[in-house]
User: Fold this.
Amino acid sequence: QVQLVESGGGVVQPGGSLRLSCAASGFAFSSDGVQWVRQAPGKGLEWVAGVARDGSIHFYADSVKGRFTVSRDNSRNMLFLQMNSLRTDDTAVYFCARELRHDSWFFDSWGQGTLVTVSS
Amino acid sequence: EIVMTQSPATLSVSPGERATLSCRASQTVSSNLAWYQQKCGQAPRLLIYGASTRATGIPARFSGSGSGTEFTLTISSLQSEDFAVYYCQQYNDYPPITFGQGTRLDIK
Assistant:
């Protein structure tokens, strides 16, 4: 069955960096779109970033553009999110999510999320 | 960026009754709309896509309707496990995809 497992969250000071990982299994990772969505505590869902199947094209929300970098390693079935210059409003649970169909941009499978807390 | 607005923010309904949740887009999204259910501490679960197609394993009591800018999620006879937060999401014009702010469905 499809499984997505995020890791790498934690507590970091403003201006710091973290790298999130998402390990995928149970589906043809290199053929499917997988993206990052976050949820601040007590708030709604916010799309963060996505990357083309071959890793050649990247998409970012304006709120993270220039600070976050999304990448994928199809040989290891992994999705990554490098987060730099973190701000307090980046505090959230970060989910990786698989698109139902390639390029559909809606999601039928989600990981359990990893919590990022940006605080001094 | 398309803004998605859900109403009401909170809906209180008794088990066995019907619940109707609304989602409005700031501009047309055609039928490119999805609905998700999220329970406390869990990841979202896809319920509906294409405005009206139930995702795999979703019970028939969940139905979606609408197109353009106005959409509805109906739960025909509420079960205890249906009390959760529901989000709509447009995927017609992206990036970015955008979500509504959510409707909390509470037990009356």
Q: What stands out?
A: The longest strand of chain A covers residues 18-25.
